[in-house]
């Protein structure tokens, strides 16, 4: 049975699209047939991060309106087998998504795919609600700062009360916390909330901690999901998160300030 | 086949009921005439049902009664509470026999005499919330205590007409005794609240950040102000 995973946060700019791309790619690398859907209608970004912006012909809204079929709109990733992208429309707005339309597309995708990753827009308006309504699991992306944590808390409340699973009284949406842009040095200085602080407030299971990393920005700019950069700390942290998502127990890395060794101290780090 | 051009449905209408205390039709005619003269427009063409409960044993000429009422510009449509015999005659005179077992006025009067006010405290079981009350959520336990087994987040609000118990950290707002109950308490395992209020007295976060901040407390109303005390002594 296909699983619908929404990557959401409430607040903008915390790394939802980067995480959606990394998680979708990670699942496909593990051998699961995966599609990432961009729900951010009007602010299409996922295709850029995935490096397939020039291959977009039809989009999600076209499929909902019956202007194209699903196979015409799905873009197959060139690097990873079993990975597909369903891009958002750049010219429409979020009202173009109807609940019936989204459900129809998801049901069609469920026949073929193992994982459907929904990249939610920021906010708690129609687009975000639509992205999380049909979710089985939610990855709540949070930065270690108070406003992001509070918005994530709000999103968790909405998932609890307004999702399809909540409305139909089914088993509640499985919630995961993904802490992004984590900088142990700044945590140590007290400038950033620690993992423990965030977890104490949100009280959900920690899926991963992605360190603040140069690799993320350069990966985004070059249209490569950062998880493909297996040398980078962020790429490795996403891989750990995927393993945890699939039920493995993996120790958390990159939580403490890296101690500079003699070599680095002499030649600079 | 042509389409059906009607629909048959039940409905309820208000009808005036003419309750007869006597079978004296001449006197009735006179008295009714006087009554109608007070508000002729109100009664003009009004459909009317004749209640026979007090004249069941008397012989009544329904045809005459009907024409007499029609003459007063009333529209007799049926009878109720008549004897078997009266019902038959009424039907023959073209009146409907309606079911009307109870005299509404009598019934209410009876109810009123039976009702006596008894003051009694009704015990309602507490409302229990399992899990965190998230930012933006509001919980109101009406006429009862509220128990939260989990935290109350920043931007969340828990309200109770009785006591509020929080087995977790209170970071949002807690309001106890919302309808006015000065004995209400707020209990929490860790006080980091934005606001606490009991029976109208409230403190915001700034006033709470004293010795009890971050610890388990009980908050009560004392002399129109609030008092915080440690829940675990010593």
CATH class of chain A: Alpha Beta
Strand order of the largest sheet of chain B: 5-7-9-11-14-15
> Order of strands across the biggest sheet of chain A?
3-4-2-5-1-6-7-8
Order of helices and strands of chain A: EHEHHHEEHEHEHHEHHEHHH
CATH evolutionary superfamily of chain A: P-loop containing nucleotide triphosphate hydrolases
Query: Which class do the helix and strand fractions of chain B yield?
Result: alpha/beta
| Number of strand elements of chain B | 15
Structural class of chain A: alpha/beta
Distance between the termini of chain B: 91 Å
Low-pLDDT residue spans of chain A: none
Largest sheet of chain A: 8 strands, mixed
What share of the residues of chain A lie within helices?
40-55%
> Low-confidence spans of chain B: pLDDT under 50, at least 5 residues?
106-111
According to CATH, the fold-level topology of chain A is: Rossmann fold
Q: How is the biggest beta sheet of chain B arranged?
A: 6 strands, mixed
Order of helices and strands of chain B: EHHEHEHEHEEEEEEEEEHEE
What is the general shape of chain A? globular
* Rg estimate of chain B, integer Å: 34 Å
GO molecular function (chain A): ATP binding; ATP hydrolysis activity
Protein name (chain A): Septum site-determining protein MinD
Subunit structure (chain A): Interacts with MinC and FtsZ.
Binding site for ATP (chain A): 11-18
Give a concise summary.
With 269 residues, chain A is of the alpha/beta class. Chain A is built from 13 helices and 8 strands.
Describe the protein in words.
The complex is a heterodimer of chains A (269) and B (234). With 269 residues, chain A is of the alpha/beta class. Chain A has one domain: P-loop containing nucleotide triphosphate hydrolases (Rossmann fold), CATH 3.40.50. Chain A is 41% helix and 16% strand. In chain A, strand 3 and strand 4 form a beta hairpin. Chain A starts with a strand and ends with a helix. The mean pLDDT of chain A is 93. By secondary structure, chain B is α/β, with parallel strands linked by helices. Helix content of chain B is 22%, strand content 31%. Chain B has six helices and 15 strands. Chain B is elongated and about 95 Å long. About 3% of the residues of chain B have low confidence.
